[in-house]
């Protein structure tokens, strides 16, 4: 009994300390920490959340509702969370979120973790294959995309423990948090813009990041080609079905088209957006390195002057920040590539299996038809024999 009480007390103490740390971090603006917060090292953050990975977190996006006001029309989605994680006050939450709320979550995650790969959101207004913004197909396609976005955040070893995700999943009114974060993001965005204008670019980018950028360019080109071919197949199959329907009863062979539209094309489109995300992440990494190189060169040109010690500390801090960002991106890149290959492989295999089943059914129908024609021919010949 004494051992159980001791373990329980240690667990409660650990939980309280972690909650206190997260809440203080969430309330500390970037202006007090010198910009967006970043982990001291990826390995330390991985250890911090390793125990959380053993705890469950289930998120469901469903029940879209249309809202019409005098100013705008928008859709909200129910987000249901069930969890056993200790950083949540309850085991189940239910909130309603609109697209702008998802956008807020993604922006805050990028602001806090500039060199981590945050899964992209679907475009705000235009999606391929959709004509009307609020028809049922568009709403369902967007719901699935928002579900994939939260699933990717939940499965990420670092982002899943973000205070912003906790707020997004639990706060009934997200408006105060959005206002506070947007003001911080606007200040940080202005700083980055001024910095990018004054920097001359990276002088010595590590080769692995140049190779990474080349990989992303090639990946984007190949996925774009596959996406165009898939879109063309869907269009041609729909036209073919519409033509057949003019000459016969309702033609029910749209399973291939439906499967492409619901399974393969969304994954391809997601990773086209991921390519843009990766380019933005690498650009932020380059900006951080360029800032370090600029400060170091300025210090070397001035030589021995007043304030040299403070300047050396600043340059050293920037160097450590570059190393942390490089390490973070390297680890996240490996994880992202593995996830990307799994997603694309699953979607392509599923599409291939669906096509095989579809054409097996078509073959069976034709074999039945031909057999019936042979039998009718045989019966006709027997009748013709005197």
Automatic annotation (TrEMBL):
Full protein name: PX domain-containing protein
Comp. bias intervals (Basic and acidic residues): 292-305
Similarity-based family: Belongs to the sorting nexin family.
Keywords: Protein transport, Transport
Species annotation: Champsocephalus gunnari (Mackerel icefish)
InterPro entries to which the protein is assigned, alphabetical: AH/BAR_dom_sf, PX_dom, PX_dom_sf
Gene Ontology CC annotations of this record: early endosome; phagophore assembly site
Gene Ontology BP terms: autophagy of mitochondrion; endocytic recycling; piecemeal microautophagy of the nucleus; protein transport; reticulophagy
GO molecular function: phosphatidylinositol binding
This protein's record includes keyword Transport: yes
Renumbered residue ranges of the record's region Disordered: 23-49, 292-312
Pfam families: PX
Domain PX span(s) in chain numbering: 55-175
Biased composition (Low complexity): 23-44
Keyword Transport set for record: yes
């Amino acid at each position: 009994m004494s051992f159980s009480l001791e373990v329980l007390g240690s667990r409660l103490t650990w939980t309280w300390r972690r909650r206190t740390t997260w809440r203080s971090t969430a309330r500390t603006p970037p202006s007090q920490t010198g910009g967006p917060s970043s982990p001291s090292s990826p390995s330390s953050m991985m250890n911090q959340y390793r125990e959380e990975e053993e705890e469950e977190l289930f998120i469901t996006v469903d029940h879209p509702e249309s809202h019409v006001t005098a100013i705008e029309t928008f859709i909200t989605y129910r987000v249901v969370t069930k969890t056993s994680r200790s950083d949540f006050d309850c085991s189940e939450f239910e909130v309603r979120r609109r697209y702008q709320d998802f956008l807020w979550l993604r922006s805050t995650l990028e602001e806090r973790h500039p060199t981590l790969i945050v899964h992209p959101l679907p475009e705000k207004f235009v999606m391929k294959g959709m004509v009307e913004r609020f028809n049922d197909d568009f709403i369902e396609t967007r719901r699935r995309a928002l579900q994939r976005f939260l699933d990717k955040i939940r499965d990420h070893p670092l982002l899943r423990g973000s205070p912003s995700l906790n707020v997004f999943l639990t706060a009934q009114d997200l408006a105060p948090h959005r206002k506070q974060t947007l003001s911080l993001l606007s200040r940080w965005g202005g700083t980055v813009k001024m910095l990018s204008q004054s920097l001359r670019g990276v002088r010595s980018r590590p080769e692995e990041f140049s190779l990474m950028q080349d990989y992303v360019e090639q990946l984007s080109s190949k996925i774009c080609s596959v996406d165009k071919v898939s879109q063309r197949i869907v269009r041609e199959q729909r036209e073919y079905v519409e033509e057949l329907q003019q000459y016969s009863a309702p033609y029910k062979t749209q399973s291939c088209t439906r499967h492409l539209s619901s399974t393969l094309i969304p994954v391809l489109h997601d990773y086209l957006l991921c390519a843009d995300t990766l380019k933005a992440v690498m650009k932020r990494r380059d900006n951080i390195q360029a800032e370090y190189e600029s400060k170091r060169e300025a210090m070397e040109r001035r030589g021995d002057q007043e304030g040299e010690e403070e300047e050396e500390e600043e340059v050293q801090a920037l160097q450590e920040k570059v190393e942390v960002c490089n390490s973070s991106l390297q680890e996240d890149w490996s994880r992202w590539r593995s996830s990307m290959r799994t997603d694309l492989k699953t979607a392509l295999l599923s599409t291939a299996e669906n096509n095989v089943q579809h054409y097996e059914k078509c073959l069976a129908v034709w074999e039945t038809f031909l057999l019936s024609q042979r039998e009718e021919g045989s019966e006709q010949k027997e009748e013709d024999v005197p």
